[in-house]
Every structure is written in C-alpha cells, then in structure tokens.
C-alpha cells in the first residue's frame, strides 16, 4: 500500500534513511520538505509505530472505495500549508455524501472512527489520505518548553544509536530525550538537570559535570536553554563556552554531540574556538515557529 507522512521540515534525509531501515518492501515515491510519499509491504500497525513521524496517512482516491476497513464513521478535514481550514458548507456536504455512499459509512463530525484528510501544500501539491495515526493535544499534555516526542526521537536517530552507548542529556527538563532514547539500543542513559522535575532526572550542572570522568560518555543528546525568553540575563557566549568545554572533557574520542540550538550564529562562533570538536552536519529546522538547528558534532 502507499502512504504519506508528515515530519519536521529540514529532516527529510534522516526520515528517509530510517524508513528504509524500519519498513519491509519500502519504496520512496516522493520526498518533499516535511512530507514523504512511499509504498511498503509492512502493515498499517507498523506504520503507526514510527514515532519520528508527525502524522501518517494511507494515500487514497476519494472517488474510489476504500480497500480496507478502518471503522464505520468518518469526518473530513481540510489542511492548507499545515493549517486546518474551513470550506464551503455545500462543498463539504457533497464530499461527505460521496464518501459515505461509496463506502457505506456514517458521517460523524464530533467523534468519528477515522478521518479523510485533504492536504494542500504551499508548492501547490495536493494529497488525500485516511489518517492512521493519532496523538494527544500536545498543548494539554506537554510541559512548557518540553520537546515534542517526534523531535526527541529524531535527535536520538541522528545520534546513530548502538547497544554500547552511554548517553547523557544534561539539560533534560522533564526527560523527553531520555524517554525517546529508551526505544533504541543503549547500555546506559543518564538524564539530568540543574532543577530536576521528577525522580527519573538526576540533579546535574551541565557546566560542571563533576560526577563524570574524562572520556566516559559516548553520546550527548541535549536541548540547552536558548536564552531568548523575555527577562533572561543569560550570557550565551560564556554559557556556550563552558558547556562545550565540559562536553569535550566527558565525551569519548569519536563520541557524538547532538544538540538543538536557537542562537545558531553565536553557537557556531564558540564552536569554532574549540579544536576538539568537528561539525559533521547542521539541520535547519523550526521549533514552535522559531528558527533553530540541530548540530551533529564529533569529538576528535
């Protein structure tokens, strides 16, 4: 069957490579910035388990009968440029009626079994699909500043997980990265923060990792403070310098640092001054509408 999935723009290379690894009979049909179309012989349940994707859909033709059963009731959703949009009532009624009659379904706009989505992208491409994934309203379940699970998973995938990894997140917050990292091979995961919010987070000062020996950590995956909040007095130049020096000390040779940064230019200036690090890749993304980047850095 053919599917399309949305993901965080800027990370198409990572998404494509891991779809190849995770799905049987994978064939890439189209890769856009933030959307991938592909076919696979894997079943729908396996597609649902791909936690690095935002939403996944079974690609369908609304003029044809569905080839699988997903329930008895449905509703229609329209999206343009990643925003839900309203449509003319008469047009909506015509589309609903046609789908309902063709598939012997009931229209339920409040609590349906599944949804037909009509997506239109900024470039003009249009896609119609049945949504097969559903996540909770992140505004109600995530703490302020907490990473969305999809982004946490992508950070972990960029780190090239293996079973010998000793992984550290010294800016853990509520622990999103550590929780995501548990889904991949590892030897040990340490989540820490200067102000732990739960018992799973150790009390750590990322600028003084005194409990860690030199060259004792294989991977650091983290999201440090961005220093752009109103009223902040964080000296980012000094902060980045101390942070990277300490990361360099505890990382093993050839260890990886995967770090999400909002202040890209300043971070790169500081990074250049540390000869112990080599920048492997920068992925430019948006986080809650703000420009940011994921840096993949190796220790020499």
- Report the β-strand fraction as a percent range: 25-35%
CATH class of the largest domain: Alpha Beta
- CATH homology group of the largest domain: Vaccinia Virus protein VP39
Global geometry: elongated
What's a concise summary of this model?
By secondary structure, the protein is α/β, with parallel strands linked by helices. The protein has helices spanning about 10-20, 45-50, 90-105, 140, 150-160, 175-180, 235-250, 265-270; strands spanning about 1-5, 25-30, 35-40, 55-60, 75-80, 85, 105, 115-120, 125-130, 165-170, 190-195, 200-205, 215-220, 250-260, 275-285, 290-300.
Characterise this structure.
- By secondary structure, the protein is an alpha/beta fold.
- It has two domains: 2-134, VC0802-like (2-Layer Sandwich); 142-299, Rossmann fold.
- Helix content is 25%, strand content 32%.
- The strands form two sheets. Strands 1, 2, 3, 4, 5, 6, 7, 8 and 9 form a nine-stranded mixed sheet that branches. Strands 12-11-10-13-14-16-15 form a seven-stranded mixed sheet, sandwiched between helices.
- The longest helix has 15 residues, at 89-103.
- It starts with a strand and ends with a strand.
List the main descriptive attributes of the protein structure presented here.
single chain, 300 residues, alpha/beta, VC0802-like, Rossmann fold, 2 domains, nine-stranded mixed β-sheet, seven-stranded mixed β-sheet
